[in-house]
């Protein structure tokens, strides 16, 4: 998995009816664009995450 600052991390819902969770990558902490990532949710909450197999990186920047 490769990401850069400004990309979106999309974590797909694991159960029927559960919506995807989308956060903005604000800092890449791993080597060569790899995890872990510092991410920011819409409500401003920030956390560090190492995404699992249910996550994908959307390389369109936030606001596009």
Automatic annotation (TrEMBL):
InterPro entries: DUF1918 (IPR015035)
Annotated region described as Disordered, given as residue ranges: 34-64
Classification via Pfam families: DUF1918
Top-level taxon in the UniProt lineage: Bacteria
Naturally occurring in which organism (per UniProt): Kitasatospora cathayae
Residues of the DUF1918 domain: 1-57
Name of the protein in its database record: DUF1918 domain-containing protein
């Amino acid at each position: 998995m490769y990401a850069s600052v400004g990309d979106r991390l999309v974590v797909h819902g694991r159960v029927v009816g559960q919506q995807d969770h989308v956060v903005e990558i604000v800092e890449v902490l791993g080597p060569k664009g790899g995890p872990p990532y510092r991410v920011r949710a819409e409500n401003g909450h920030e956390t560090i995450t190492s995404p699992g197999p249910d996550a994908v990186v959307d390389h369109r920047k936030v606001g596009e």
